[in-house]
Amino acid sequence: IDSTPINSTTMRANKELQKDGILCRLSHTRILSAGMFLFMAFTFFEMRNIETSTLKSFSTTRVGPFQMPIEGESYSISQPLYDLEKGKMFVDHPLYDSPQNFISYFEKHIDWAMQYVTNEDKLTSSMSRRKHAIFAYIQFIKSMVSATAFNDAEISVKPHRTMRNIGITFDADKRKNGTDWTFLGDTMTGWARLDNVYKLLTEVIENNIPGDYIETGVWRGGSSILARAIITALGEKDNRVSYVCDSFSGLPPGDRNLDKGDKDWDNTPYLEIPYEVVASNFAKYGLLDSNVIFVKGFFRDSMFPLSKEVKRLSIMRLDGDMYESTVDVLYRLYDKLSLGGYVIIDDWFGFPARTACEDFFKVHGINPEIIAIDTLSVYWKKTEEIKIQYWRYEQSKFK
After folding, report:
1. Beta strands of the chain (E only): which ranges?
2. Does position 140 have pLDDT exceeding 50, yes or no?
3. In terms of Cα–Cα distance, which of 137, 389, 76, 276 is closest to 399?
4. Which of 36, 68, 86, 362 is most buried (most C-beta within 10 Å)?
5. Is 102:290 a contact under the CB 8 Å cutoff?
6. DSSP symbols for 201-252
């Protein structure tokens, strides 16, 4: 067998011989070897694409907790990984490495650095190397979604519901307290509320409380992105779904007249974030997987069809502000929440959402312990099952 290497000169010569009608005597072995090399190179390239791209599935087989997309006249339930065209994404590939690679690197970094440091820090000294690395990853995501990582490049946006927003010099304290709106980031949720998501998700996972995570009212998706990062970092990516629920076009007009505080929430352009933008935000962190489900539509339209698909929930994070947006979720999904699971109300103090919850408690005869997170938000733990009075919802008799 001729083992002379194939080079550019040989190939040009062979082409000239072919032109003259002379058969090229190339070795079958070299042809097969070259073909195998190209096949392996192509396969490696495609596998790298599959591993690194969270924007579009290369498989024709859809996977997920139930069959999607589900589409109604005024709602949809879908998986952006499959259902959103790649060209509509803001990013072509993740901007950050996968959680697994991040954690693996920092495990090694912490192990190396500890050769020279005696850790007396109260928070991290009791952590294993891996737990410390996971914690570092979660803190990194928290700093990115809240935009505190950008320091002076960030802008503090002064919130206005009906006026054009004004950007001023970044105030890190306001951002950490959740009292301004972000410009470069993905959530207006303060650090205490983000830490609360980490605390509660860690607790339900460690205590084997069954169920998925749902957020109703997501804005740019930052809190749900952090939750997905936590679920993935703690090894529950394949076991727990993240439901990302929003109209993706702002708040409802409040025309059901359920509470006087429900008026004028629909004139807030800065809060009207399209589906594609939120999906892109998941993708840029490498967290848009098949168990990230987007539920589009006002909750009065979307929660009932969603309730037919959801099996169990472990955490419900409600950020709908309004009375109607809150009862839409509680009446449709509270019975799906596992005992030992949690409800988080992002806007409690001074918001119609509080009245909606208190009315819900009263008519159902429950009195959960309400625990404050910060000056805006609270959460409670579900400790007893109740029979939801659906007729009240159907007849709008919530008092």
Report:
1. 70-71, 76-78, 155-158, 166-169, 181-182, 212-216, 242-246, 292-296, 313-318, 337-345, 371-372, 378-381
2. yes
3. 389
4. 68
5. no
6. HHHHHHTT---EEEEE--TTSHHHHHHHHHHHHTT-TTT--EEEEE-SS---
**CA dihedral defined by 352, 358, 359, 365, rounded to 10 degrees?**
170
The yes-or-no verdict on residue 145 having pLDDT over 60 is yes
Q: Determine the 3-state secondary structure of 276 from DSSP.
A: helix
Of 277, 278, 205, 270, which is closest to residue 245 (Cα–Cα)? 278
H or E segment to which residue 82 belongs: helix 80-83
- What is the set of active-site residues? 195
- Band of the pLDDT at 267, cuts 50, 70, 90? confident
CA–CA dist 105, 16 (Å, integer): 53
Is there a contact between 273 and 263 (Cβ–Cβ < 8 Å)?
Answer: no
pLDDT-derived band at 28 (thresholds 50, 70, 90) equals very low
Torsion of CA 123, 188, 310, 82, to 10 degrees: -100
Contact of 216 with 317, CB cutoff 8 Å: yes
Least confident range of 107-116, 138-147, 255-264, 276-285: 255-264
Q: What is the DSSP letter of 319?
A: -
User: Residue 129 above 70 pLDDT?
Assistant: yes
Q: 240 Cβ partners below 8 Å, 6+ apart?
A: 205, 211, 212, 213, 231, 291, 314
Rounded to whole angstroms, how far apart are CA atoms 343 and 334? 9
How far are the Cα atoms of 67, 226, 243 from residue 296, in angstroms, in the given order?
A: 16, 20, 10
| Alpha-carbon torsion, ordered 335, 78, 61, 284, to 10 deg | -110
Q: Which residue's structure tokens are 């609360």?
A: 196
Nearest to 244 by CA among 283, 196, 191: 283
Q: How far apart are CA 165 and CA 159, in angstroms?
A: 6
User: For the CA atoms of 140, 142, 146, 152, what is the dihedral angle to 10 degrees?
Assistant: -30
